[in-house]
Specification:
The structure is a single chain. This protein has 293 residues and is of the alpha+beta class. The chain folds into 2 domains: 206 residues, Arylamine N-acetyltransferase fold (2-Layer Sandwich); 79 residues, no CATH class. The protein is built from 9 helices and 15 strands. The strands form 3 sheets. The protein has an 8-stranded antiparallel beta sheet. The protein has a 5-stranded antiparallel beta sheet with strand order 1-10-11-12-13. Strands 14-15 form a two-stranded antiparallel sheet. Strand 11 and strand 12 form a beta hairpin. Helix 5 crosses helix 6. The protein is globular and about 60 Å long.
Amino acid sequence: MSIMETESEFDMKHYLSLTGGSSEDTNTVNLNLLKSLVYNHVSNINYQNYDLLTGKEILDMTPNGLLQRLLVDRRGGMCYETSELMFYVLFKLGFDVRRVAVSVLNDTNYDPTEPLVHNILIVHLDGKMYLVDIGFGYNSIRWPVEFDFEKTEEKFVIPGEKYQLICEEDYYQLNLFIKDRYASLYRFPRPITYIDHKQSMAYYHDLVTLPQTLYIRDSGIYFGVIVEGGRFCFSCDYTDGSASNFTFMSIQDGVTDKQKLEIDGFVDLVKKHSKFSIKNENIEGKIIFKKAY
């Protein structure tokens, strides 16, 4: 058994209180509880890869460390952090939950040599399977999505958020409908390859330490905030150690509003909506981000 599965000091009541839940509602493992836990988790833990890009350090991935950083300190985090905390909560409450490492596509061609830089969960419940993805940048999924994993299916989550799971002979691919077409998000093997805590942490270590340039770690900053009926998306490019092209996108009831910002406006909006304080300085005309922890 791993640390994630044996640690006894985790305060579940504290986790539930910070995410808007109640221990009185966790006595029965069922779909309503799963939906509530996933929605509350993704609504209260914002996505950010700022710490990854500016620090490139292995962070505390124990349940208590994740609880403190993501929720108590209100920092949020990237996929392997928030997904691992979600796994632990579901596991401790009695769900049959399993980890899956996936190959990110981001609407590009599949490259089998790319490291597995994203992590999702599959929950088996009452003979059905639910995909849980609470850490895919600003496109985290607010509900568990039921797929039968036997044929290609389309599922609406809310208006403006429609997903497609393509089932091919040797792989699955998740797509998101954007504007007038499906854009590819990621793919993973068929049959599904489940990984344990040790393997998941090895992939996390690869993400942080591999010397090659990784898009999510080296090339841009992303913040994602789930709100009722939509989401707020913040992004900017980060090339040659300098930030540029600051963008704020609001998606509400399927309607998208996109704005270009200056650095001060970007910093202010991120803090307003995610409570995250960006540290930066202007050095010879270059905007440099600094570690914020």
